[in-house]
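Backbone-to-sequence.
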């Protein structure tokens, strides 16, 4: 078979494509001689070729003898001048260049002593190759040379000639699997035969102690006898005790065909099951026309390999037999232990598929026994099968209708709840900003700054704090709507070291206490002038209430002024947070925030993320009610991290809204449909919930009713059909008599 117009199967070397990033040596300074212009031109041409290939939708190129490729290096090296200019290379007559990549170049050559055609590969850098490149080059040659199998490209000899390292191998006229599948997928049988032959060859390599680690369609050549030949052992290593030429965590191979353990750089987990994965990826591409994972960049492809499941092959090729899809997906399992234990086991299952036998990946069980019974009793089997099919159809229709309605209604409820949660979060943000501006105003009061110049409890300071508190508790303060309640439970001032100086309402034993350990004091110390800090939820030992605090530092105007004290206003847990319209007839809202674990007798914060508690809940029947603890993975996923100087001046809702169709309300219990929305960039999260039973659960009753009605009609139909057949057979027998 002559090489076709798409180039010989040896035409490209070293996998120079977006699916693999080259690992080339860097030119030493002494190599930059008079041929600098030629070298620069070669570098530019090679880089432009790489860029051009990256823009193509195919992530890898057909290769022969491609060297180990390390993700993350793009430097190029010049073409070996002696290989380009000379027609003869030792005992070889170089006929034409078949291809090149980042590390090597492959020529079609004639070995003059034996008068035979071979493919000869040499290091692209020539005498400039680094010791690691030379060692990796010889590793490939040694790995392939130790394998003598009809489906593995054989290595003839290797060595060094005039400083140029090389080895020769079989010249295979034909195309690679990548070329064959580029236009259309292969038939299921042809694909299974190819992969079975490859699996037998790889099983032989494993038995000889060699892992390939870079199996892909372009590394499998189809010879003139239509037999696959595995090539390119550039990434091969010994199964036990093999030396690595890469550091820990480096990623080698082609992302689209790379197993997850190899993509994650887990070198110790790479074994025979890794090559099984790559053969599954080859089978996937042969029957679907595309690899199981393919993205715009190699990094995105690696992320797909690690995090996503491949699309079922039958979705891309509906004609594909289910057994072959099962074999393919078993190879592509993320966990190595759930794949075929060896390439030989994969070859055996493919052989069973080709011979029409049940595959081990999907063993025949009770269904086979049913088939044998049906062969002995065809009429009874036909009735039972008809009844079973009709019953399944009725049940499927009932379930499908119910699920369709349930899904549609559930989606509408979820979107409605997410919209409501986003609005409630914005409303609470607006409420906190109103309160925060009030605290800013108090902190910027010059009279307060004057009184704090010499921090000590005084009547003047106490009266000033009471006046501000009364101002904001009244209508003139602008924080109390008509018929609403005053927002601040109390307002107090701390000195620069956290000692309490004044409080409204007044509390005798409050003065002089040290509150420097509290989050509201520490957060205010880190906050700039004119900004407000939102504290964690805490339990007040003074009035036995659960609260959240808004605090701001007191400084004189001007840059670099020392902090004179801290103004703190507290808001107790309750049912509405001062917003009477927070809940409606169908939904209710709650506000969740982290709990401050610090106490007077426990100055150190607990390790790990703080526990979350419910600050606002419709079931709280009085201000300051005990904040109930809540835990949810969805809640954690939308909760913002604490910023060093958390503040209230936030202009937009920043994070995504999430939902949970199986949320458990820790206060009221039961199952709820819930949406989670962060309050801007703060650590507080709004949860809008709706009872699941009221929204969706009635659809299950509809499915049961449809199944009962359909099943009853089906049973009557089966009885009538069976009776008719019985009477017909009886009449026939009587006529015979």
């Amino acid at each position: 078979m002559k090489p076709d117009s798409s180039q010989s199967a040896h035409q490209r070397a070293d996998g120079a494509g977006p699916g693999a990033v080259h690992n080339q040596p860097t030119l030493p300074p002494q190599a930059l001689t008079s041929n600098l212009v030629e070298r620069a031109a070669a570098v530019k041409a090679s880089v432009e070729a790489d860029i051009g290939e990256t823009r193509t939708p195919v992530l890898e190129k057909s290769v022969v003898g491609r060297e180990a490729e390390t993700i993350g290096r793009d430097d190029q090296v010049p073409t070996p001048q002696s290989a380009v200019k000379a027609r003869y290379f030792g005992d070889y007559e170089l006929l034409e260049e078949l291809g090149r990549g980042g590390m090597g170049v492959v020529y079609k050559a004639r070995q003059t002593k034996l008068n035979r055609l071979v493919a000869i590969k040499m290091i692209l850098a020539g005498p400039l190759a680094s010791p690691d490149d030379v060692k990796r080059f010889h590793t490939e040659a040694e790995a392939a040379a130790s394998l003598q199998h009809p489906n593995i490209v054989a290595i003839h000899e290797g060595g060094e000639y005039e400083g140029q390292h090389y080895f020769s191998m079989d010249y295979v006229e034909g195309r690679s699997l990548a070329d064959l599948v580029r236009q259309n997928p292969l038939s299921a049988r042809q694909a299974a035969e190819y992969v079975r032959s490859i699996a037998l060859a790889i099983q032989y390599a494993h038995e000889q102690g060699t892992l390939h680690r870079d199996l892909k369609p372009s590394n499998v050549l189809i010879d003139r006898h239509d037999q696959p030949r595995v090539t390119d052992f550039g990434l091969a290593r010994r199964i036990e005790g093999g030396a690595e030429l890469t550091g820990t965590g480096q990623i080698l191979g082609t992302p689209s065909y790379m197993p997850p353990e190899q993509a994650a750089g887990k070198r110790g987990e790479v074994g025979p099951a890794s090559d099984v994965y790559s053969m599954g990826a080859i089978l996937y591409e042969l029957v679907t026309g595309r690899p199981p994972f393919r993205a715009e960049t190699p990094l995105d492809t690696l992320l797909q390999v690690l995090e996503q499941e491949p699309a079922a092959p039958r979705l891309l090729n509906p004609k594909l037999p289910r057994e072959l899809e099962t074999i393919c997906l078993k190879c592509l399992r993320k966990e190595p232990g759930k794949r075929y234990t060896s390439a030989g086991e994969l070859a055996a299952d493919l052989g069973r598929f080709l011979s029409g036998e049940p595959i081990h990946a999907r063993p025949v069980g009770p269904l086979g026994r049913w088939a044998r019974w049906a062969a002995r009793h065809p009429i009874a089997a036909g009735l039972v099968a008809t009844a079973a099919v009709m019953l399944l159809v009725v049940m499927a229709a009932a379930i499908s209708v119910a699920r369709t309605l349930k899904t549609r209604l559930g989606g509408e409820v979820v979107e409605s709840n997410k919209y409501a949660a986003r609005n409630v979060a914005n409303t609470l943000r607006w409420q906190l900003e109103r309160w925060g501006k009030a605290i800013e105003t108090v902190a910027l009061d010059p009279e307060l700054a004057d009184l704090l110049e010499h921090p000590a409890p005084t009547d003047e300071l106490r009266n000033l704090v009471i006046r501000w508190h009364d101002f904001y508790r009244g209508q003139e303060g602008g924080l109390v709507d008509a018929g609403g309640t005053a927002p601040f439970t109390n307002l107090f001032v701390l000195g620069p070291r956290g000692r309490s100086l004044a409080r409204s309402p007044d509390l005798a034993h409050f003065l002089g206490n040290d509150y420097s350990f509290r989050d509201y004091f520490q957060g205010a110390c880190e906050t700039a002038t004119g900004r407000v800090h939102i504290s964690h939820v805490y339990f007040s030992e003074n009035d036995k209430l659960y609260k959240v605090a808004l605090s701001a530092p007191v400084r004189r105007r001007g840059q670099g002024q020392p902090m004179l004290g801290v103004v703190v206003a507290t808001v107790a847990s309750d049912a509405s947070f001062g917003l009477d319209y927070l809940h409606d007839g169908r939904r209710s809202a709650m506000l969740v925030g982290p709990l401050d674990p610090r106490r007077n007798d426990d100055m150190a914060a607990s390790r790990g993320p703080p526990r979350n508690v419910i600050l606002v809940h419709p079931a709280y029947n009085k201000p300051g009610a005990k904040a109930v603890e809540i835990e949810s993975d969805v809640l954690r996923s939308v909760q913002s991290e604490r910023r060093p100087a958390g503040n209230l001046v936030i202009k937009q809702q920043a994070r995504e809204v999430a939902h949970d169709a199986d949320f458990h309300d820790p206060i009221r219990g039961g199952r709820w449909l819930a949406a989670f929305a962060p309050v801007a960039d703060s650590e507080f999260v709004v949860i809008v919930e709706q009872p699941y039973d009221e929204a969706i659960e009635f659809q299950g009753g509809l499915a049961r009713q449809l199944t009962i009605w359909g099943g009853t009609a089906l049973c009557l139909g089966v009885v009538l059909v069976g009776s008719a057949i019985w009477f017909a057979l009886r009449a026939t027998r009587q006529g015979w008599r």
